């Protein structure tokens, strides 16, 4: 079983123009994320999938392997599926969708997500279709931000729902953040999955919940695919909004 990590990087992002090539402390954002992915020892191969010749040229310049993909993909998952096919990923391989705006992923937790596809969940031997990551939310501002995607997780680790809304809702009193057993979790946009699961996810087409929340993982969840959530330590969020660029640069230079 090989493990192929694919970083989908499109240049025509909506909230941050030319996001993969935004300069952070002297390197483009996509390079910082690629460097993080390269530190995950469970990955056998790390490639950047893009439809932009400019992104491809920059990526090759810092030493990355590049796969050129079509420009009409509706989601990163669809771009990763095309890349996996071009790379001849086998039925027994693991493919990781490592979103190119997540340079602060905890590499130990990421490695655990890959292993989870082999060993099953804490509650038994059931093998997930997809394993993704989450981190405890640290404060009310992050919990309420639409830019921070939240995930609600069952006691055995299975994903119940993903939302941009502040969930779970606290009816009485005030939410309490941090600490052991935290229920307020920020989703981290990376996914490890079997090759058949990736093919199925990409082939489903946009679902009603996905269209409402603009979250592609809801397409898989709504179709009954099993998503397990690995919870790691508190980490810096990825780069989603223009204000995140300054914060990310401070962290990278600190």
Please, could you describe this protein's structure?
The chain has 254 residues and is of the alpha/beta class. It has one domain: Spore Coat Polysaccharide Biosynthesis Protein SpsA, Chain A (Alpha-Beta Complex). The chain is built from nine helices and eleven strands. The strands form two sheets. Strands 1, 4, 5, 6, 7, 8, 9, 10 and 11 form a nine-stranded mixed sheet that branches. A two-stranded antiparallel sheet has the order 2-3. Strand 4 (45-50), helix 2 (53-61) and strand 5 form a beta-alpha-beta unit. Helix 3 (76-86) crosses helix 6. The chain is globular and about 55 Å long. The model has no long low-confidence stretch (mean pLDDT 92).
Summary keywords:
alpha/beta; Spore Coat Polysaccharide Biosynthesis Protein SpsA, Chain A; nine-stranded mixed β-sheet; two-stranded antiparallel ribbon; 9 helices; globular
Give a short synopsis of this structure.
The chain is an alpha/beta fold. It is built from 9 helices and 11 strands. The protein has one domain (3-253): Spore Coat Polysaccharide Biosynthesis Protein SpsA, Chain A (Alpha-Beta Complex).
CATH superfamily: Spore Coat Polysaccharide Biosynthesis Protein SpsA, Chain A
The number of helical segments is 9
Determine the structural class based on helices, strands and strand pairing.
alpha/beta
Shape: globular
Q: What percent of residues are in strands?
A: 15-25%
Gyration radius (Cα, Å) is 17 Å
* CATH architecture annotation name: Alpha-Beta Complex
Major beta sheet, specifics?
9 strands, mixed
Count of all domains: 1
| Total E-strand runs | 11
Give the end-to-end Cα distance, rounded to a whole number of Å.
38 Å
Low-confidence stretches: none
Q: Can you give the helix content as a percent range?
A: 25-40%
CATH class: Alpha Beta
CATH-defined fold name: Spore Coat Polysaccharide Biosynthesis Protein SpsA, Chain A
H/E element order: EEEHEHEHEHEHEEEHHHEH
**pLDDT average, as an integer?**
92
């Amino acid at each position: 079983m090989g493990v192929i990590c694919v970083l989908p990087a499109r240049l025509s992002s909506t909230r941050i123009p030319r996001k993969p090539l935004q300069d952070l402390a002297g390197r483009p954002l996509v390079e910082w994320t690629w460097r993080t992915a390269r530190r995950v020892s469970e990955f056998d191969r790390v490639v950047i999938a893009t439809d932009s010749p400019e992104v491809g040229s920059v990526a090759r310049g810092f030493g990355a392997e590049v796969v050129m993909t079509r420009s009409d993909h509706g989601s990163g998952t669809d771009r990763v599926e095309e890349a996996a096919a071009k790379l001849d990923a086998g039925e027994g391989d693991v493919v990781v969708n490592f979103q190119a705006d997540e340079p602060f992923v905890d590499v130990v937790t990421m490695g655990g997500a890959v292993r989870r596809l082999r060993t099953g969940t804490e509650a038994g031997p059931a093998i997930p279709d997809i394993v993704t990551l989450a981190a405890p939310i640290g404060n009310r501002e992050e919990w309420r931000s639409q830019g921070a995607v939240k995930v609600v997780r069952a006691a055995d680790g299975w994903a119940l729902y993903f939302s941009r809304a502040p969930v779970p809702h606290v009816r009485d009193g005030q939410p309490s953040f941090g600490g052991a057993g935290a229920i307020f979790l920020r989703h981290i946009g990376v996914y490890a999955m079997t090759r058949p699961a990736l093919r199925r996810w990409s082939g489903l087409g946009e679902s009603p919940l996905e269209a409402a929340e603009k979250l592609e993982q809801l397409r898989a969840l709504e179709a009954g695919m099993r998503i397990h959530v690995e919870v790691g330590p508190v980490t810096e969020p990825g780069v989603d909004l223009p204000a995140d660029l300054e914060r990310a640069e401070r962290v990278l230079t600190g």
